[in-house]
Amino acid sequence: MFKKLFAKVGIGAAEVDAILDTDHFAPGGRVKGRILIKGGQVEQEVAAIILKLMTLAKQEGEDIDLEMGHAIAEYRVADPFTLQPGDEREMPFSFDLHPETPMTVLEVPNNRSKVWLETALDIEMALDPKDRDYLNIHPAPVVCHFIDALEKNGFKMVKADVEKGFLRGDGFESRSGCYQELEFKPSGFGFSSVREVELSFILAGDNVHVLIELDRAFTGDGYRSLTLSAGAGYEEVESALKTLI
User: Fold this and answer.
1) Where are the domains of the chain?
2) CB neighbour list of residue 220: distance below 8 Å, 6 or more residues apart
3) Which of the two residues, 136 and 220, has the higher pLDDT score?
4) pLDDT tens-digit profile of 134-164?
5) pLDDT in tens, 60-91
6) Integer Cα distance of 78 and 182 in angstroms
7) For the domain bounded by 2-137, which CATH number is listed?
8) Which residues make Cβ contacts (< 8 Å) with residue 94, sequence separation at least 6?
9) Cα–Cα distance between 70 and 165 in angstroms, integer?
């Protein structure tokens, strides 16, 4: 009886661990690995194994902004089963990253963007054993072109973070409930009155949608949006930016 009670509060309960084939990914890339499960000191009924693709998202409040975990996507790996004491199981898994997964591998001094995979056993009336694995999400080539074009035209990326909410542009909108912002400021030279540029991207198959927020010295904030091919080269990206900035 006491063992069952302790297991409900996490003492002597089952353990779960996700082993990834790699922790480096491209947007929309395939995540593959295996889940290791080890039974605790008592028999436990597992309703499901759940994988959550998580990020740290900022939510604006009246007095303070809070950063909280936000589930971008959720995957159920296994049907219900009974886990015996000391039992060891291994289950493979694979899924495609959500196309709106924030980028984390960025050369920026203030990088608040984090993405992780949270693995949990769904056990009734008990604290779920959880495992967290951080993922390195690299920018798509077209996103790198946007970053390079801004930097070569007088701006420096100073911050990257994720906010709760939805993006809406000309003919597109986001779906994940959060969006990433890349913030740029003039680096001391430039060709316009723009004091700040914020870029947000939605990768959608063969296209990339971009929402651009501009803070101009005399006219204040304004929004622009555009859609380019996911295979757009540097020259096309730079040309599109120069028409807006």
Assistant:
1) 2-137, 141-242
2) none
3) 136
4) 999 999 999 999 999 999 988 999 999 999 9
5) 766 667 889 999 999 998 888 999 998 999 99
6) 37
7) 2.60.40.640
8) 30, 31, 32, 33
9) 11
